[in-house]
Amino acid sequence: MPTDLAVSALVTRANMGDQGAWNDLVERYASMVWSICRQYRLDRRDTDDVAQQVWMAAVEHLGELRDPGKLGAWLAITAKRECSRLLRSRHRGETAEDPLGFDMTADERTGPIEEEVETAERNAVLHAAFMTLQPRCRRMLALLLDELPYQEISARLGIPIGSVGPTRARCLAKLRSDPALAALMESETEPSRGERHV
Amino acid sequence: MSEQWSDEELLARLGAALNAVDSVPRDFVEAAKTAFAWRNIDAELAEFAELAYDSEFGGENALALTRAADSASLRALTFVSRELTIEIEVTEDTLIGQLVPPQPGRIHLRAESGAVCETTIDEVGFFAIGAKPAERFRLHCRTATGIAVSTGWITL
After folding, report:
1. Model's pTM, two decimal places?
2. Which end of chain A is more exposed for a tag (fewer CB within 10 A), N or C?
């Protein structure tokens, strides 16, 4: 999968000491780590603690990952484990009862790892594609996402109302033409990934 | 070629992606980037800072005479390397430290279990770690000028 390859390449570069590659990985997965902590209802301080453990562990084990393209899954698993551990230790401190039952509810709070990672990868690709658009297109899409009526959009962008539709189409087409996004859309809509012939 | 997402689908997913990014505080992301500075901290040639003074075993050297007197209840430790001295004092729940000569940087505490904690050393070489580790730990320090120093294991 192209996403895996992109991640794998970043991991390799980071392993060689490339801070920029590491930054890209962080930008890609920070919102996933954040959202996992949210699901465990951690406050900001605990979230920062968990994140620190997760990123430090990642830095330490970057060179040992069996499948570098799966860094996202590794981060998600590590984040969940750290969240559980933190809650467990806190819980043990307060009441000594039924740690097992507590564990189970903690795990039910979050969706499956694959889903988490898939969303993070998709968001990263979409965000990166969005950032390559012209500022005008970005603004147009942002206004559309705010669900403003065409009239309002036309006024804000200073274009005739008749151009809003075509501009929207052009900007979305431009977005689609991003190679990483195109590859992602294809892989996600393909019915059986396993049977692909290159 | 298989069908791609419709415009509506694409927009909805884009909206979700932008929301996910926006909901994360920037300082959260920036903090994660600084973790990279600790890559290979054990493997690289960080200078080893030797324990030169420990208040628990005070009186063994000249430094101890002055120190033990004014801070009897505090545990104080001094680590010395060629370029840098790290002084730490342990209060009830905080570990405070001072670099000599004073200079900014980052300090990283790694407990034996692998738990880590990292913080900034300010412009005058001061740092405070808001957690007193219950297990053995080591300190790794990296100054803004690139000096890297590691201490041996410390048990409080």
Report:
1. 0.69
2. C
